[in-house]
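Appendix B, example 12.
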Amino acid sequence: MNLIKQIKELVAGRSAWVYGFVAIRGAISILVFKMTSIFFGASGVALLSHFQNFIGLFTQVPDQGTNLGIMRLYHDKRMQTELFFHATILNIAVFAGVFIVVITSKSTFLNYFEGFLLEPGTLTFVFVAIFFMLFNSLTISFFYAKRAFQGVFWLLLFNFISLLVGLLLIKSTSIFMFMKVYVGILSFNSVVNTVVGFSFGVIPKWHTKLNKVVLRSIAGFLVIAAGGMVFGKLVDFFVRDFSMGWFGEEMTGYWQAQVRISDNIRALFLGTVGLIFYSRVSAISAHEERSIIELKQFLRLIILLVGIGLLLLYFFKGWIIRLLYSEDLLPAADFIHWQLLGDFFNLPAALLVYVIISQNKIGLFLKLHLYSAVIYVIALVIILGVVQNSVEMIPVANTVRQILFFLIVWNSFRKNDWKNG
């Protein structure tokens, strides 16, 4: 398969609406952090990143667990009318579990938000808003399952406009008011999206009879997502918490500006290339040697294109930071090369993880992400303690993690599925 043919296949056969809603997702993230950097500078970027991570402790497992289960199980007509009810039960159970942990450990999780969240009624407001946000990705997953990509596009466009209008109205009052309005608008959009999903029949008619088979099927994906949350978002939360306490909010903000760029690249990458790769992986058997060889060639092409893209981003780093943030965040360009080097290994590794998910290798998935978290923590301790005690070294530790994680994942496939490829 020649290079030109492979590049054409990256974009061929995909609905334009897919690229459209992926672009709007990125635009929403860029909008929020652009306004934050203009109004509140680097410290505001650090605090908003921490707040989003806090929300993610509640939403990541539903986003990547129960909802992935819906997309995988939807085409079994026997389960269609039971998915929403059972996914909702599991989402509420996850929310309740995280809520109990947070409430019983306020000093750990609310350290930088105490003055904000402990205001009368504010903590309740935030928890209620997060609860309604659980239904957003649940609804969107039914749109995905029905391939109603045009509907997703228009919903996200409405979400983008409402967020823009709402945040512009409050302007630069305080970062905490900004975050309160932000989570409120996200909650409002979630309710609107869910109502639309029911009104247009995207979410099938459902009943409340408990089915252990359906519950168990969705719960399998929940375990995978929970492992990703504990070894991913939770670790990131504590690392950022340490950084703000040790290096200050402003310096942490420069590092977080880089992380947000990486997050946007990853979301764009997985929302386009990832969908193509996952569909290919799901369609083949591990014993189909020809298909596996083509998959390896596809992966090599992706690595080449990722490398070229990240090099371009590096050469235009100053201009990109001005575009996405503001002049105040330019110091982030001074050490962004480490973050981008980590992305070079992270993106192909993310595709390989899709193979693990498609083959339902839950144990391997959890083990690999445990290794990643342990490597990251050990690298942080050694680099900050021995090399240099500065925020610039956190992306270095992340790069060490991503390189080793990629090598471990790749080696697991050389010894298993792709050893004959």
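The chain has a mean pLDDT of 84. Residues 16-246 form one domain.
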